[in-house]
Amino acid sequence: MNVVVSPRLRRLVTQRAHGVCEYCLIHQEDAYFSFHVDHIISRKQRGPTTDANLALACLRCNVAKGTDIGAIAGRPPRLVRLFHPREDAWVGHFRLTSARIVPLTDIAEATIQLLGLNASDRLILRRALIKAGRYPSAEALAYLRGDS
What we know:
- This protein is α+β, with helices and mostly antiparallel strands.
- It is globular, with a radius of gyration of 15 Å.
């Protein structure tokens, strides 16, 4: 089902996220492909096309997430929902340790695993961005603080 996100809604989602992927914190300017407007709860799972269900996502995070809303994580392993950028605070679930995104919760563990947030090529990119002083960007830090 192809649902068109209006230009107004796309602007709102992009501005609210300060141009940063709400999962991996890469800035749009540091990505080769344009960012997507992600349905946090997919249309397949009856998620609406409303600002409360939309997040800005880089191509890599959006494709890896697909229509999934959970993954196996935790001890003992069980089905755990994914990080929800409208309901969860990034800093409550994840921590940045240099280029690595470290899980603080089972929700973060499920999200990191499913989205491949610490895949070797992603770590290489983030290390290069850290060296260039671009990760986390000022916009990512504003997003994490919840600045409007």
